[in-house]
Amino acid sequence: MTLEKGAMVFHMLRWEIGEDNFSKTLRALITQYSTKPIRTRDVEKVAEQESQQQLTAFFAQWLDGTGAPQFVNKYTVYRLGNNKGFRTIGEIGQDLDLFNMPVELRVETEGKTEMKRVDVVGTNSQYVVDTFGRPRHISIDPDNWVLKNTPEMQVRIAILRGQQLVAEGDTPGALAEYQKALTANPNSSLASYRIGEVLFNQRNYQAAANALS
Length: 213
What we know:
Number of strands: 6
Largest sheet: 3 strands, antiparallel
C-alpha cells in the first residue's frame, strides 16, 4: 500500500510497546545482530523479550496481512450533574474486523485537551471520556501512529497503480485509477497531471488541456 510501510511498522511497534521498550529492543538488536544477518522473526522475538508482550498478532496483521483500517468515530456528549463536567460516550468503527491495535483518541475541550488510549478490536470499539469542559472536537490517531486508510493514502495508492498500469500499456486502466485519485481528492494536482499526461500521449490534446486546466 505504501513505499514507507517498512518504516511505518517500526513506528507502530514503538507505539504498541512504548518508548522505553522500543529503545531496549533497538539496543538488543544492535548488540545481538551487529555481525550477522537478521530476519523478521528475529526482530519479533527480541521485541517480545524486551517488552514482555505477545506480538504475534501485531506482526501478522502488518507484515503477513494486507490493507489498512479506515476509522469512523461516532459519539454523544452528555452533561453531568452538579457541575461535574461532561461525559463522552463513543464508538470507533473500522472496516477490518480482524484489526487489533491500540489507537490514540484526542478530545479537545473548551478548557484543555484530553488524550485517551483505546484498544480497537473488531469492527466496533466503545470508549468513555469524562472532561470538565465541553468537547469541541474528537480525533482518532491525531499523531499518525497507525497506518490507516485515509483519502491521502487512497490518492497515493491510485496514482501508483495508475503509473504501473501505464508502464504495462494498460491506458484505460491507468485512467480509471487516476480518476479514483481525483474522486478521493478533487484537488489532487498530481492526479490531474497524470490524466493530462496520458491523454497527451494519446494525442488527445484538447482533453489533455482540459485535464490540466
